[in-house]
Design a protein that fits this description.
- It is a single chain.
- This protein is an alpha/beta fold and 493 residues long.
- The strands form seven sheets. It has a seven-stranded mixed beta sheet with strand order 15-18-19-14-13-21-22, with helices on both faces. The chain has a six-stranded mixed beta sheet with strand order 10-9-8-11-12-24, with helices on both faces.
Length: 493
């Protein structure tokens, strides 16, 4: 491994907005083109945009074997060597910023403004990991806590857990892959990754950039694969950690099959935002419009339930309706577009069915509700029954439900009335109410004076209940990817 000045190949300048017709997979650090079996569509036009190679079980097995061989060489990398790899990635992501954003528009149907924001977060995540890669601290611990332990001192440090398995979702193809890849490099863990087959390109471009570095052979493999052909990512005992981001049903099923390995799950949500009577309503309105409908609501922390104090309910509802009706839908490559396509017609039809069912059971449609193909209008509903799927399940689309509350504890109880517990937002100026919420709410994170959709990439991020297990955020992922190794020294008499 060379120092940072020799880590990279010559850069290719600013990235073009033209995509290739064919992309390889990355097996043990190298681009490999065994086939062109995975067709990826432009989510707005429905046409095939490009093809990638698809990993067979034999290729996955070879990748895991490579990761095992790379375990010791990766663990022996010096901090500055790991940091150099991550710094190289940061620089190359900046070089290829426009290309990466365009790829998100095409493969994920992400509006260009959201796509640019995700590329910025990708850069942030790798930059944070580069900083944290030199901070794998341990501790000296006095052990002479009783007469029998006189003369004993403990020292512990963190060591890499070993080969890791990563499965990333379709909705943030770059940054959610980055939240697994960057911490692994920062601690020195080899890994195999399965990106979502609907949106594999972001992870493959990360792989292309990693291949420009001198990471030990087998340090990484990025392998698009079918769900049926990818059991080894979960079941193979050579892998010491599985990190999965995706749907709750799939995540818990994988955990049941994972065997002895450590498992980290980032799953679904049904995020609520509470707006109290003392809130800055202008600010709350702007943020709820964003949180409810950015990237067509396809985020596990998108604002799904808005719980308004009775005294401001009518005013806020009417203003929100006007704003939602004014959101621009269409081609995600157009900078004016706010609502792009959902990932598939299957998903838009599912959510349209949930909306129609809620209306049939007495809910009131305030805006939207219409669907053509995989384009679902920004939808706002009130008086939604709590036993409807639109209220109780994860919408994962551009649909928001309004309800009202009278007392603060009543609002907190409604937030908790969910099998999910990822994040929530609170708009209030009352510190006592904030502290009460912090004690009572069954969620992984509470955001005050902003929406549940807020995620800063260095904070501990994750949920409770059906929302997952463990925390991401670079430093916290690094902890999961390491083990504590203790050293006890007894002073000679």
């Amino acid at each position: 491994m060379h120092d940072g000045t020799h880590c990279a190949r010559p850069t290719q300048g600013k990235g073009t907005q033209m995509l290739s017709e064919l992309y390889p997979l990355y097996l043990n650090n190298k681009a490999v083109q065994p086939n062109s079996d995975l067709a990826v569509t432009d989510k707005f036009t429905g046409e095939i945009a490009f093809r990638t190679a698809l990993a067979t079980p034999e290729i996955i097995d070879e990748a895991i074997a490579g990761a095992v061989r790379a375990t010791r060489p990766m663990a022996e990398l010096a901090s500055f060597e790991r940091q150099a790899v991550l710094d190289h990635c940061v620089n190359r992501f900046r070089d290829r910023f426009d290309e990466l954003a365009h790829a998100l528009c095409v493969e994920a149907g992400k509006p260009i403004t959201d796509a640019r924001g995700e590329v910025t977060r990708l850069i942030d995540t790798f930059r944070i990991a580069a900083e944290e890669s030199t901070r794998m601290y341990g501790e000296v611990q006095p052990l002479d806590i009783s007469p029998r332990a006189k003369g004993f001192t403990g020292i512990w440090k963190r060591v890499p857990i070993g080969p890791c398995s990563f499965i990333s979702p379709f909705n943030f193809p770059l940054n959610l892959a980055a939240h697994k890849i960057a911490p692994a490099i920062a601690v020195g863990c080899p890994f195999v990754m399965k990106p979502a087959s609907l949106t594999p390109l972001g992870a493959l471009i990360i792989g292309e950039i990693l291949a420009e570095t001198d990471l030990p052979e087998g340090a990484f493999s990025i392998l698009p694969a079918t769900r049926d052909g990818s059991d080894l990512f979960t079941t193979d005992d050579r892998l010491k950690l599985l990190s999965f981001t995706g749907s709750p049903d799939v995540g818990w099923a994988l955990k049941a099959k994972a065997g002895k390995k450590k498992v980290v799950l980032e799953l679904g949500g049904n995020a609520a935002v509470v707006v109290d009577k003392d809130a800055d309503l202008d600010h709350a309105l702007e943020r709820i419009v964003f949180g409810g409908y950015f990237q067509s609501g396809q985020a596990c922390i998108h604002v799904q339930r808005v719980i308004l104090h009775d005294s401001i309910y009518d005013e806020f509802r009417d203003r929100l309706v006007a704003r939602v009706k004014g959101l621009v839908s269409g081609d995600p490559k157009n900078a004016k577009t706010f609502i792009g396509p959902m990932i598939s017609e299957k998903e838009s039809s599912r959510l349209k069915g949930w909306i129609d069912d809620a209306l049939a059971q007495g809910a009131t449609l305030l805006a939207g509700g219409q669907c053509i193909g995989n384009m679902l209008e920004a939808t706002l509903v009130e008086n939604c029954g709590r036993d409807t799927e639109l209220y109780k399940e994860e919408a994962f689309g551009p649909a928001v439900v309004l309800s009202r509350f009278f007392e603060w504890d009543e609002a907190l109880a409604e937030v908790n009335d969910s099998r999910f517990g990822l994040q929530c937002g609170l708009f209030t100026r009352d510190i006592h109410k904030i502290m009460r919420a912090w004690d009572v709410l069954e969620v992984g994170g509470i955001v005050v004076n902003d929406v549940s959709s807020t995620r800063i990439d260095n904070m501990p991020y994750g949920g409770v209940k059906d929302s997952g297990l463990g925390r991401e955020g670079v430093r916290f992922a690094m902890e999961d990817m390491t083990e504590i190794r203790n050293l006890v020294i007894r002073q000679e008499a």
